Amino acid sequence: MEPVAVGLIGAGPWAEMAHAPMLARGPHTRLAGVWARRPESAARLGAPVFERVEELFDACEAVAFCVPPAVQAELGVRAARAGKALLLEKPLADSLEGARRLAGVVAETGVPTQMVLTLRYAAGTRDFLTRCAEIDPFGGHAANVSGSLMGDHPFATPWRLERGALLDVGPHVIDLLGAALGPITGVRAHGDPLTWVGLLLEHEGGAVSEASLCQAGVGELPPPSFAVYGRKGTAVLPHDDDDPLAVIAEEFARTVRQGGGHPLDAAHGLRLQEIIAEAESQVRTP
């Protein structure tokens, strides 16, 4: 399979740590170039730097995003209309309106899309979901507690500091609970996304789950946890060192080259955004 030429939009810490090396290492993708609002940051990523985003589009067949959600929503529309496949970060946008617009343009243009929901590409997670399907699940819980909004943490970026855990880690947690217990049909939320927010999720088929999200922790904190309980047993997500990035790149390349879509596409990202928007409407947000 010919490597997919991918242009990268964004040059922040996560782009430097994950996206750029993932796309550059191959063999399924190659990093065709970078565009960022700060060219000096883009120059560190070891690929051609483009002054105009349209020039990046001309140099690639697909575009990966590592920018704030509002920027992804805006430039994702432009990339889709330029006919480029999209490798999208979570959340899809900063607002439900933006997510609907981006997903609508994707549907209109028919470009391939895939969401970087990193948990879903890890081997341990896939084994966990296989186990969930075997135990006839009726409930589960998840907790994601960190200090990533505190001090000089590299991910304490303006949009995260404004919107908190619900918009940042919420997509990961909601997505995985939905995959484990069935599509989510309802959500109830309480708390404050900037400190602690709790979710009660209702799933198709009658299962229920609970999630606790926090990015304002201090001191020694536990790793994220997921557990699902069923009539035939229990499934617990292991804590391992799976690196999902190679799998993300390979699956994206196959989505681009072979067609047929990907289950974690922009339409899936929109469904997650709808759940988050409903939860945000029930708790204190700016």
CATH architecture of the largest domain: 3-Layer(aba) Sandwich
CATH superfamily of the largest domain: NAD(P)-binding Rossmann-like Domain
Strand order of the largest sheet: 7-8-9-6-10-11
Number of strands: 11
Roughly how many Å apart are the termini? 47 Å
- Choose one word for the global shape: globular
Total of domains? 2
Average pLDDT taken over every residue: 96
Q: Count of helical segments?
A: 11
Topology:
Elements: E1 4-9, H1 13-24, E2 29-35, H2 39-42, H3 53-58, E3 62-65, H4 69-81, E4 85-88, H5 96-109, E5 113-115, H6 123-134, E6 137-145, H7 158-163, H8 165-168, H9 170-181, E7 184-192, E8 196-203, E9 208-214, E10 225-230, E11 233-236, H10 245-258, H11 266-280
Parallel strand pairs: 1-2, 1-3, 3-4, 4-5, 6-9
Antiparallel strand pairs: 6-10, 7-8, 8-9, 10-11
Helix pairs in contact: 4-5, 5-11, 9-11
